[in-house]
Amino acid sequence: MGTIDFRPGSIVGNYEIVEQIGEGGMAEVYRARSRSGQCVAIKRLLPAIAHDQRFIDMFVLEARLAATLHHPNIAKVHEVGVDYFAMELIDGHDVRTLLTAAISRARPMPLTITLSIMYGTTCALAYVHDLCGPRGPQEKLNLVHRDISPSNILVSFEGAIKLVDFGIARIETGSVTRSASKQIKGKFPYMSPEQCRARPLDGRSDLFSLGVVLYELTTNTRPFDRNSEFDTLEAIVSGDYPRPSKVIPKYPAALEEIVVRLLATRPNDRYPTAGALLVDLDRVISAHDIDLSNDVLAAHIRAHLGNGEPPPPRKRTTPVTSSDATIPTPHGELSAEAKVPIDRIVARADELMRTVAPDVTDPRDLSSEHVAQLIGRALRWHAKGDLESAVLAVELTLSAARNETTDALLTSNESLILSVLTSLIGDQTRTAVPSQYLDALVGIAIDQRAAFLLTRIDGTLSAHELLATCGLPMRDACRHLCQLLLREIVVLV
After folding, report:
1. pLDDT tens digit string along 114-168?
2. Rounded to whole angstroms, how far apart are CA atoms 40 and 55?
3. Which of 241, 332, 339, 363 could lock 223 by a disulfide, CB 3.0 to 4.6 Å apart?
4. Residue 324 appears among annotated catalytic residues
5. Among residues 94, 130, 147, 206, which one is catalytic?
6. Whole-number Å distance between alpha carbons of 472 and 88
7. What's the pLDDT tens digit per position in 414-449?
8. Is the pTM for the entire model greater than 0.85?
9. CA torsion, points 481, 485, 486, 488, in degrees to nearest 10?
10. Are 189 and 232 in contact (CB under 8 A)?
């Protein structure tokens, strides 16, 4: 390995090297361009270790593994070569950069950024942990990332969340893997207790690491940082850390409960799956009325880095307690989403909203009177068999900001709403499968809950099984499945 020329202008596989853009402990990364003009990132082993078979094997494993992963919150691999692989270029920042900015500006990380990062990364882990072999659910791969940390979570300028660097990920079979230097793999401050002890791992180890990231995002400190690596490992193994509310006054109680459960010393005391974590994150997101859409996140990132103003807050009907405390200085080191020309469903929804509320541009600003009109239209369209229009009316209804009147309307029409959604789904004994055109559609801006539902769809579950086991309330599960069906991201066969 290491014989290919990577100087600017050189041709590597189907790409022309433009410039080097990064370097890590094992590899360096280049910006490259295809003949059609598409920009990609090319990763190759550092020349100094490119002839060491141990590192070659690890690098090849990463390339082959990453090439099999297809999820909106995981950077996509386009081509695997002899000593390199080309992957999706994420124009943006890693989460470590955002943490550094939070500290330098003495400001807390906005909750919108924190929860968007958490939700996107958890969606990626839900997909990775549930991967199965050719024989289906009876052949779970038990894939564990093993290196969840701020530097391996990227946020694109367009607001997409991407998990990267599966260099030490592995299929866990009960054995333990150490690096060539006999050291346990992983970044010490983010390792789980079982990882510190070099014991077999499962997906709950990744969730512990994600808990450390969540703690750091919300306090600007790492829970187990100590004066030495040994003391750090001791703190992790013993579960010795200050609760977030001891670091940040008025820390949201529901969010602290999530942190504490993620950082439980015993794996059995943590969330059993990433899907279970998503359910609790969803409750916090709803309670704080947070918009997870990519454009809102992108605006918040620009404001956080001092390059713009944050988007206006969503209209609230009830106050939410949040911290306005100054973030202390920490100790020690601290999806680019493809855009399709037109999302037909969004265009139709916008057209419908203009007919009901000409002066409203954001469905969250729809009044209770608008909601009542939309429910009436949904009822009429449903009776006529125009299910797509009925579902779009319901979608706008459910997107409106909540108040007492709107809540009463939704409650009194709950059965109608569910009937509309289930009518579009139809025969629930059919199997939900990803569309053969998924790669072309993956840039469509579906929301994070629909993206989570997509992680559960592998061609083995019927619609009924999917709705019953996804962990979302039935109305929400039906709603987000309809989003995927309308856009033909998922089909029922």
Report:
1. 999 999 999 889 888 888 777 766 677 888 998 999 999 999 988 889 998 875 5
2. 23
3. 241
4. no
5. 147
6. 31
7. 888 889 899 999 889 999 888 755 554 444 556 667
8. no
9. 140
10. yes
The 10s digit of each residue's pLDDT in 56-104 is: 777 777 777 778 888 888 888 888 887 788 888 988 899 999 999 888 8
Q: Tokens 């054995």 appear where? A: 175
Tell me the domain boundaries of the chain: 11-88, 92-176+186-304, 344-492
Fold of 11-88: Phosphorylase Kinase; domain 1 (3.30.200)
CATH class of the 92-176+186-304 domain in this structure: mainly alpha
